[in-house]
Amino acid sequence: MSNTEQKVEKAIRKLQRDRIVVFRINALTRIGRDELMNIFARLFDEFQLNPALLFNLYSAVVEIIFNAIKANAKHVIFKSEVRLKLIRQKFDDIDDLLEIIFREEMLRDFMTRHIVPEKLKKRVNTVLQLTEKKRTGRTAGLSPRDMQLLAEFNQLLESEEVFIHFTMAMTDDKIVFNVVNDIPILAKDMDRIQQSRTTHRKLYDEGRSTDYFGPDYIDVTESAGFGIAMADEIYYEMGLDPLEHFTISASEGATRAVMHFPRAKFSL
Ligand SMILES: Nc1ncnc2c1ncn2[C@@H]1O[C@H](COP(=O)(O)OP(=O)(O)O)[C@@H](O)[C@H]1O
Ligand SMILES: [Mg+2]
What angle do CA 250, 255, 260 make, to 5 degrees? Predict the structure, then answer.
């Protein structure tokens, strides 16, 4: 059995025995996505779920895992930018100051005004692309500068101890996916998500939910908000209310995305 096959079998056995399986993730490169697809395929097979829904479900889950990965990357990079600012302004006790800023949501949100969003976004995208290249063995295309950026980023992840926990649970009537990252979502990001989901919902009620993906509704200012909208659309297609079955919330310094699916919707 290959390494992937072993991992898949282990996950499925765990799910059968305990009804729940937990994965700790810090990246989701092509290799990990393939593994996840294999787990989903086995899951559908083992529990006799309608294969027509396999790809939709997989895409939605990949999307929320990516969001968590991006959020963690954004957080550590944001924090390092804030640190730089404090150093430049010659503050003392930078570590203590940072601790206070990042403990208080208000202060943390306030600091976002002093960091250029475009620069932050660019740094996040760059390191995530570099991670993908490195982990899939395409190191030939990486310059010494790239390698240095990657090393710095990995060091940040390590010192901040950010992780993602991905849980799959299966009961007689439900399938639940839970993605938790131990950094709290920024209030303004949360507002943006809510607003975008409500707009999408309004369009759905008017019988034109797919218009949300057209030029009139794309918000390109910071993030398109497409990922969550795509996941919501999957719920709409299944005749389910995404605002009820799919929640994103922040508490105790963590962000949680939980997707519930009634098993009845998957029966053959
Ligand atoms: N797990 C999460 N933790 C923190 N922030 C999140 C999380 N998921 C989503 N977000 C926020 O919600 C925004 C919208 O997500 P999404 O619709 O997937 O768009 P995109 O991924 O293109 O930015 C993200 O830009 C991010 O700010
Ligand atoms: Mg996304």
Answer: 95
Pinpoint the alpha helices (H) of the chain.
Answer: 3-18, 30-46, 54-88, 94-103, 105-111, 117-135, 144-160, 187-205, 226-237, 242-245
pLDDT per residue over 135-171, tens digit each?
A: 888 888 899 999 999 999 999 999 988 889 999 999 9
Predicted structure pTM score: 0.90
**C-beta of 193 in contact with ligand 1 (< 6 A):** yes
Domains and CATH numbers, the chain: 3-26+164-266 (3.30.565)
Q: Is 189 in the pocket of ligand 1 (CB under 6 A)?
A: yes
- What is the average per-residue pLDDT within 103-127? 87
Q: Measure the CA–CA gap between 167 and 91, rounded to whole angstroms.
A: 42
Q: Separation of 88 CA from ligand 2 center, angstroms?
A: 33
Q: Mark 188-210 as b/e (b = at least 16 C-beta within 10 Å).
A: ebeebbeebbeebbebbeeeebe
